[in-house]
Design goal:
Enzyme class (chains A, B, C, D): isomerase
Largest sheet of chain A: 8 strands, mixed
Protein name (chains A, B, C, D): L-ribulose-5-phosphate 4-epimerase
Helix content of chain A: 40-55%
CATH topology of chain A: L-fuculose-1-phosphate Aldolase
CATH superfamily of chain A: Class II aldolase/adducin N-terminal domain
Catalytic activity (chains A, B, C, D): L-ribulose 5-phosphate = D-xylulose 5-phosphate
Number of helices of chain A: 7
Radius of gyration of chain A: 17 Å
Family (chains A, B, C, D): Belongs to the aldolase class II family. AraD/FucA subfamily.
Oligomer: homotetramer
Strand order of the largest sheet of chain A: 4-3-2-1-5-8-7-6
Low-confidence stretches of chain A: none
Number of strands of chain A: 8
Largest interface: B-C, 30 and 31 residues
Cofactor (chains A, B, C, D): Zn(2+)
Strand content of chain A: 15-25%
CATH architecture of chain A: 3-Layer(aba) Sandwich
Structural class of chain A: alpha+beta
């Protein structure tokens, strides 16, 4: 199972490049190992082209390296905190995707003005607190902010988006959709305020998309 | 014939990616089966890389699955309504392309300020009503709005563009051109209002492009 | 020689795609046949993927088809007019590249605020008159506007850029640089007016770039 | 060693294309030859596709051609000046990447409003003086401006960014990150001023990123 996750993470990091969410080495994906208190994550500062299944590292839920030759991502503590406090989460993604990071820089939630936002996020995409690497404040900020929202994405203040999902692929999807709506809503607002989608419609769209969309 | 349409739809979905109209699985193309009350459409939530001719599904004009192993696109009801009420339409496309969707979010038609808009759209690109998945209100909104315009594109309020064409390729072309002009006109207006193309010139350009442009 | 130009034009049309100057079939490149009153140009409405050396068509300086199985580009009359009235021109390009076309939509010349503009354009990029397909008014607008500028690019009002060069490659380069500076200057001006480069510096930069840059 | 640098520079120029920092031939990378008063640099006006290890040229620290069949980059004098006056610098990059060049056109430093800027730049990205090709004023402007900043990037007024690094790869990374933050901060500021990251946090982030990030 860990071997499968290592391979999947190589592909999912390439999705970050493909959808223009990252430059150079500035983003990472992790996946919880089902049934164990472990997760697999990108090594720190390694370019996406150079990633191999073997280069991925395995950490425990305190962020300590358990398996692997390389140092784990410098965001490992934040991923670990999320897995420890959200047993429902199987994947975490962090990027500095430009439009989502611009909303994060202003500390402004993305309002739910598109049916596609209602589908995926079930409302606005919230802003988390300013927190920097060094303790568990980033992880705590993610978990506390998302506790009050249906959104799988949070914009950490002056930093960038973190997304979660039932598995790593779902978290990558949320990162892709987060940047997509961050961009579209930014563009829309350049000529004035935009009307939010009605709350009842948001609820119906979210319910349908989460339960009917896709293949059974 | 259905087999040919299945193959063509794989290629046309790749065009949505190529021209940056969609992310992840958020867009779909369908094609009417000539001479039958059927159309072929993308399966729901399947990634563009994974699409094969066999994965496409066939539906009737009430949107019911007729042939195929997968669930049809969640926008199938809207496509079906258009085919049922517009016998001249052979292809339908739906995307959330960012600039067109931004105009849709504001509920603002794209004014005809470019000769390229006159060519392809014969005037402004109109806005359709706010409508959500669940009944025939999206399909009805598309058909009623386009009845009053030469444009093959409509911006459904808070949602995104739908385009039609004599076949699926023409509808994809309209989706590509819709996003292109949505972007250019957005950029142009950032420094103030832009003068529309004179109505008589629009008519001459539209007539020429529809009847002379391309190969006989 | 005509065969060489046919092959080169296939490659140069791919450059239009590569640098994001065109979508679908909306742009064209032509090349004068040295020593003859002829030029080679793209056929109308053919996708860039489908272009072959054989698909290119040869026209005379009145825009009449001389050789080839397909109808010439619908912009052929404009290209022909330029070759007829500017014997120094060996290549012409037309696109609807988004930022250049946005300046054209506003009818606003691009001010020379970057050293890269001084290098390639020797000053501002001017705006040509509003003119539509049907007579020689586009060609005339290009020639008359460029007569008063060092710029190899002109922004035809409400339409888009045309560029010229000593050969087709130089005209493509001018189209690429025109969109590049159109975009950068647009972005720069979003936070207020931008100081032009001093006229004497423009002259020195232009002279150096035209005479020293590149390989002897 | 020179052969290795020639090969590496081919790859690094492709990175400029990959990350959308350059169009046509408008950007260059150089690498100091360790232990010698020499550096390797791109030839002038050669397209990125045509670059080979053999096409690269070797110059001394006065910018004179020492080895190679082609004329060196027209920015060679600026690169030479930097190597001569900054013995710690092993690589230099110059581009006209659009967002960074837009800030340069306005002569406005990029404020440190993102944790990613604190990481890589340790504060704002400063603006250097207006200077044109012909003497050592560009090189001097780079060196004097960067003497007062931790940033490896400087925005030369009305021109574009120059970046430095311990080697050519680090300078390319700085160019990539410079454009990335130039874009994100531009987007962020479109809806009003953005709060800078607290100075103490900037120092902690910079220290950590420079000393802990990546592999030992």
């Amino acid at each position: 199972m860990i071997q499968q996750l290592r391979e999947q993470l190589v592909d999912l990091h390439h999705e970050l490049i493909r959808w223009n969410l990252v430059v150079w080495t500035a983003g990472n994906v992790s996946a919880r190992v089902p049934g164990e208190d472990l997760f697999v994550i990108k090594p720190s500062g390694v370019s996406y082209d150079a990633l191999t299944p073997e280069s991925m590292v395995v950490c425990d839920l305190d962020g300590r390296l358990v398996e692997g030759d390389l140092s784990p991502s410098s965001d490992t503590a934040a991923h670990a905190y999320v897995y420890k406090h959200r047993p429902d989460v199987g994947g975490v993604v962090h990027t500095h995707s430009p439009y989502a990071t611009a909303w994060a820089a202003r500390g402004e939630p993305i309002p739910c003005v598109l049916t596609a936002m209602a589908d995926e996020f079930g409302g606005e995409i919230p802003v988390g607190p300013f927190a920097i690497i060094g303790d568990d404040s980033i992880g705590r900020g993610i978990v506390e902010t998302l506790a009050n929202h249906r959104s799988p994405a949070v914009l950490m203040r002056s930093h960038g988006p973190f997304t979660i999902g039932k598995d790593a692929k779902a978290a990558v999807k949320a990162a892709v959709m987060c940047e997509d709506v961050a961009r579209t809503v930014h563009i829309a607002q350049q000529f004035g305020p935009v009307e939010p989608v009605d709350k009842a419609a948001v609820d119906r769209l979210y319910d349908r998309y989460q339960n009917v969309y896709g293949q059974p």
